[in-house]
Specification:
- By secondary structure, the chain is mainly alpha-helical.
- It folds into two domains: 94 residues, Orthogonal Bundle (Fumarate Reductase Iron-sulfur Protein, Chain B, domain 2), CATH 1.10.1060; 28 residues.
- It is built from eight helices and no strands.
Length: 129
């Protein structure tokens, strides 16, 4: 199976919705990360790898699964980059590659009628691609 690094990188960037080009590699995100001791790639390194188009290396890493999603990295970033969003995008892309985590329009008929529409739209956007 040939891995298209450029396409993988674009998919991760689209899912993460954060501008990794703004990162100046100061390391504040990694310094404040509660799970950093258990990660194979620290948050600033994840951003660097993505910025340099090494998406397959990120998909092979354990760091996305060790991330606590506490968003401390995003809070500490002086440039507004969110490594936590990248970690979530990596988890989601791995799950999607396994053929799971899909939401079909037909499954929406089982939800209560009083459920907020914003929730349904957000779930459909997240799980439909």
């Amino acid at each position: 199976m040939v891995v298209d690094e450029k396409q993988l990188t674009e998919d991760i960037l689209r899912l993460a919705a954060t501008d990794v080009r703004r990162c100046m590699q100061c390391g504040r995100c990694s310094a404040d990360c509660a799970a950093a001791l258990n990660m194979d790639l620290l948050p600033h390194r994840v951003v660097w790898e993505l910025n340099n188009g090494h998406a397959s290396e990120l998909l092979a890493a354990e760091s996305p699964w060790k991330c606590l999603s506490c968003m401390a990295c995003e809070e500490r970033c002086p440039r507004g980059v969110s490594p936590a969003r990248i970690m979530e995008a990596l988890r989601l892309l791995q799950i999607r590659q396994q053929g799971k985590n899909k939401l079909a329009a037909e499954s929406l008929e089982h939800y209560p009628s009083d459920m907020p529409q914003q929730l349904l739209v957000a779930a459909f956007r997240k799980y439909n691609k």
